[in-house]
């Protein structure tokens, strides 16, 4: 495996803390959402994970669609990452709602499934968190 790029972020303070990237392009506070008993008012790890997964997934979608001659430049994905309690454990789950204008629902679902198989974030989570990918 050839490493192409490494992102480096220092986190401190846990869910009510601060993060900063090594290159300084990211620096902000994180807060526990009000829905989880926190103060809210800042981003949280689940939003950040969804924000990272979305563009990566769309890159995979573009790659698989290109092989089939389909233009997905106007495609969108709504990534929802949930923090759940399962008995005494906390687990994540995810939903990816994929929209590709100008093609059928069935073709969108087919491309969405192929992108999910190709996306590095999808691969990293496969078998680890419950994930649903749906054409919308």
Automatic annotation (TrEMBL):
PANTHER family given in the database record: ORGANIC HYDROPEROXIDE RESISTANCE PROTEIN-LIKE
Any GO BP: response to oxidative stress
Protein name, entry field: Organic hydroperoxide resistance protein
Annotated family: Belongs to the OsmC/Ohr family.
């Amino acid at each position: 495996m050839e490493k192409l790029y490494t992102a480096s972020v220092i986190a401190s303070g846990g869910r009510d803390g601060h993060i900063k990237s090594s290159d300084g392009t990211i620096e902000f506070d994180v807060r526990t959402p009000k829905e989880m008993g926190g103060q809210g008012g800042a981003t949280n790890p689940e939003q950040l994970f969804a924000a990272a997964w979305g563009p990566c997934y769309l890159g995979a979608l573009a790659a698989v669609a290109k092989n089939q001659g389909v233009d997905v430049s106007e495609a969108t994905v709504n990534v929802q990452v949930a923090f759940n309690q399962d008995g005494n454990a906390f687990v994540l789950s995810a939903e990816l709602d994929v929209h590709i204008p100008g093609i059928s629902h069935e073709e969108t679902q087919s491309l969405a499934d192929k992108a999910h198989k190709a996306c590095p974030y999808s691969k990293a989570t496969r078998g680890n968190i419950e994930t649903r990918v749906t054409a919308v």
